[in-house]
Design goal:
two-stranded antiparallel ribbon, 2 strands, disordered C terminus, mainly alpha, globular
């Protein structure tokens, strides 16, 4: 609550001026007010740990640049760009489905990347399909950006079909790391996902009517 303080006016009398100082607020409390449940901080922390680790593993240990690139960007897509709700089992199922679907996209996009017109057409079809699927399901809507990245990255980097195993291996490594990080690295408490929250709201509205 802002406090008033006394000061002298032009005629020498006392007048009251509001105290414009900001109230003291603990940084974590301030962050919690703007990041519900610290969800964004959880995703950023996981990504900051897993993404460079995957790149270092693929580039320095395995020595495969293609694998390292897709392991790093796969971690980025599956850890930072999605935030599935619900119990842990449902979140892990959604993460696994995202990893599998993204792997299919990596294969198809790599094959289409060898020809410019085919790459453009495949990107248009894939983009429309992913965005349209997001209208049908809020779970798919939450994974739209990650799925688009899974197609955009390989289709924009032209490579022969022989690059598919390395790229798919990198994406698979990222999927496994994302599953482990979601379950073990600062796991979020169970919460209702968008579909469940919408159903609860609908039931409450029907009850009120």
């Amino acid at each position: 609550m802002a406090k008033d303080k006394n000061c002298l006016d032009a005629e020498g009398g006392l007048s009251r001026m509001p105290d414009t100082r900001l109230p003291h607020l603990h940084p974590l409390r301030w962050l919690g007010q703007r990041d519900r449940g610290l969800a964004a901080l959880r995703r950023a922390t996981r990504t900051a740990i897993i993404m460079p680790a995957m790149f270092a593993l693929g580039d320095k240990v395995i020595g495969n640049p293609q694998l390292a690139l897709f392991a790093a960007f796969g971690s980025f897509a599956m850890l930072l760009l999605v935030d599935f709700g619900g119990p842990m089992a449902e979140r892990l199922q959604a993460q696994a489905a995202l990893a599998v679907t993204g792997g299919v996209f990596v294969c198809l996009a790599t094959l289409a990347s060898q020809t410019a017109w085919l790459a453009a057409g495949a990107m248009a079809v894939a983009g429309f399909g992913v965005i349209f699927a997001g209208v049908v399901s809020s779970v798919l809507a939450g994974a739209t950006t990650a799925l688009l990245l899974a197609f955009i990255l390989p289709v924009s980097l032209a490579a022969p079909a022989s690059a598919v195993p390395s790229r798919l291996a990198g994406w698979g490594m990222a999927g496994g790391a994302a599953l482990a990080a979601t379950a073990l690295l600062w796991p979020a408490p169970a919460r209702d996902g968008p579909d469940r929250s919408r159903n609860v709201t609908a039931r409450m509205a029907a009850t009120a009517i």
